[in-house]
């Protein structure tokens, strides 16, 4: 009996019986285990992700679970709670064997990354959501093999919009655009990758009202391979200095220089009473507080910036800048 072998219930009963009758002693079993220190390695279960990378994926999908909770709560108008239950790396074949023979399966592409990810939704959860969308209380009736075209369409629309939240959850490691590419109810018909390909399975524990079940996200190693370096702690902790390129600075200066500003030459000011204002008529004159030989105030965007002198240039009205108004200088006057 190897240390990695899983015993059936009958083998466990036989072993306990042998120990109790004295045929096998616990000391002999312990001594045998001490002698056998060799750890078996299953090449079919090749571990291609480090624990650090799995933890990073878990953090990303914890955020995704919060986004899904908010989305479904607003959409279904009932109690919804979604959280990450586990994150494991296993062969694709093992994942397919672990899910029900009849379930809800969505195949997604996430460009610009190559490959596809598989999202499995427990029928209890799917039907509870469908019942809420159709105005029911959220009762779940598992009739996955008898889905109508209308039910399929409603379910596809619901989950297609829900899993758009993936792009926001993944934005720290990749800018993806999830696209629904397929719907299936039998996992045996989906050969997404080779059976021995390592996949990461993130299981989301989901509660809708009084119904609970799992949503499993299956991500192949080949899809994550280009962004694996971004799953390390050093990537999350580092602060990249973004340097502005010279050509960008030049383009920005050019745009600023092309901006139009309103220039106002203020000839002077005057104060009159409301009665005088109401009695104004065509031809009346208003005396300003500035003399004709005094500089005028030139405003840029209604803010005093210069002192100027009025005149003409090429038979057009013009103003000559005489001095710059320093901050607070105009207020003191």
TrEMBL record:
InterPro entries: CheC-like_sf, Flag_FliM, FliN-like_C, SpoA-like_sf. Signal peptide: none annotated. Residues 256-325 form the Flagellar motor switch protein FliN-like C-terminal domain. Its main location: other. One of its GO terms (cellular component) is plasma membrane. Gene3D superfamilies: CheC-like, SpoA-like. GO terms for biological process: bacterial-type flagellum-dependent swarming motility; positive chemotaxis. It is found in: Bacterial flagellum basal body; Cell membrane. It is a peripheral membrane protein. GO terms for molecular function: cytoskeletal motor activity. Keywords: Bacterial flagellum, Cell membrane, Cell projection, Chemotaxis, Cilium, Flagellar rotation, Flagellum, Membrane. It holds the Pfam family FliMN_C. Belongs to the FliM family. PANTHER family: FLAGELLAR MOTOR SWITCH PROTEIN FLIM, YOP PROTEINS TRANSLOCATION PROTEIN Q. This is Flagellar motor switch protein FliM. It comes from Fervidibacillus halotolerans.
